[in-house]
Amino acid sequence: MGQKSNFYVEIRSLHSEVTGSCFVCKISFNNGVKKFFLVDVGLFQEKEYLDWNEKLTFNPEDIAFTLLTHNHVDHVGRLPLLYRRGCKSRVYASIGTAMALPINLEDTLKVMQERYKKTKKNVTKFDRNDTDNKNNIFPPIYYKEDVKQVYNHLKGIPYNIWIKDKKIPSVSFKFLPNAHLPGASMIWVKIKEPEIGQTVNLLFLGDWNTANVFQGRFKFPEELRYVPFQIICESTYGSTRKAEIKESFQQNIQEAVENNKTVLLPVISQYRAQEMLWYMKKMKEEGKIPFDTPIYFSGPLGLKYIYLYQNDKFPDFIPERKNFLPSALRLLSSKGSLKYVSIGFGIYIITGGMGSNGPSSAYLKVLLPNPDALIQFSSYCAEDTLGRKLQETENGEEVQIGGTPVKKLADVRFTSELSGHAKADELLEFLSEFKKIKALLITHGAISQREAFRKLAEKANVAKEVVIIDRNNYVRLNPWGILDKKIWKD
User: Fold this and answer.
1) pLDDT digits 0-9 by tens, 79-129
2) Does the residue 1 lie in any domain?
């Protein structure tokens, strides 16, 4: 009879829904030695989870290394907290993500500082004595010196190269291209038990997509097809099929310009802002909007990403897509008030994709009462953001913007066709390419979406076993699949 193996890998998700993405991975070797690594350390943005941001349910000093799937705040926004709490280990990311990360972390710190200052100023002394923190007053969870520590430990890695960290030499990992946005990755982690020759193969999909405008469509990597993977899979659009998404974005813009309407496009600073500029260039070249239609851009953070993407050292772009700026482009200052500014005809691409942060809220305040304006949202708008409130506000009703009631008279539209996340059928098609999935661990989605995708994945028989993981549970894996499921309590 062979030796009994005590080798397993434990995966715990620290996020229960969409934001705050973080996986704590514990390796238990056959000799009893235990090692830890992380995949992503994101910031929570849902209102009900904000107090989780300063809580770490592990000791940062125990972490051997951290792997990053991509540069979005809900995947990297808590990284500096690790170093504030004593972490000394490396952070690994693709070259594109490593180049973009400083822009993100410095802005995240700035937003935390400004929000803390504003909310603290707006409450009374009586409220400040409220121990339940009903006013959601959260001081910054880290500072400049902690952000610098991330840079000191950050290493950018080219795609498709196996890497080992000296703290766990029996673990190797490689970053694989992912079309969620430029620089995004899937991460293959290969964990070997040297004593007994067993291997666990993990594949973290991150936020996954099939194509983007700057890198084109990705092909399935043939080397993955027959690997016995345990796949950690997102479920943002777990109940939505691609055919259900109405493609209306370009038509809405074209019709608005034909009718001399002012167009406002609130955009996320990274990728969506640059994508919008590319779409305007493309629409002009195809004659869908006049070549001399003025295009305005505002947002210092978005401008930094424009310069980053145009940098010759930023990898992975289709060469001809490096020039994505449209004709008649004018850069606007994001400083000062728009209270007395007359916004004329044109297309305004303004950062602050959910309407609450960045300069977009000032433009919304001016254009929302204008019936001759189109306000086109193209990103997910979280609860308690201005974008979500506008979704829920009927035409003619008022909404509060910066403490001022503003009547909604503009044509306000929302589309998810440009989302960087694959839809349920696209995910299933991708997963069906794998021939030996031992376990599919579903995460990173609203509760309803995760459950819907679990049912679809089971019906499609894409894996030996399908489970949902969140902050309340975790799984133990061995080379053959799920060894055990556990309940976790903070």
Assistant:
1) 999 999 999 999 999 999 999 999 999 999 998 898 888 777 666 554 555
2) no
End-of-domain residue from the set 414, 429, 457: 414
CB neighbours of 180 closer than 8 A, spacing ≥ 6?
Answer: 70, 206, 207, 208, 209, 212, 420, 421
Do 167 and 95 belong together in one domain? yes
pLDDT digits (tens, 9 = 90+) for 225-249: 999 999 999 999 999 999 999 999 9
Closest CA to 105 of 45, 157, 46, 148: 148
Cβ burial of 181 (10 Å; 0-12, 13-18, 19+) is buried
What stretch of H or E contains 265? strand 262-267
Domain membership flag for residue 135: yes
Domain limits for position 109: 8-240+420-487
Strands (E), 268-387: 295-298, 329-332, 347-351, 373-377
Residues of the chain with pLDDT under 70: 1-4, 121-136, 334-342, 489-490
Pair (311, 392) in one structural domain: yes
Domain-terminating residue out of 375, 398, 414: 414
* 167 φ/ψ angles, rounded to the nearest 5 degrees: -75, -25
SS3 477: strand
Say if 403 falls within a structural domain: yes
d(CA 279, CA 281): 5
Counting the structural domains of the chain, the total is 2
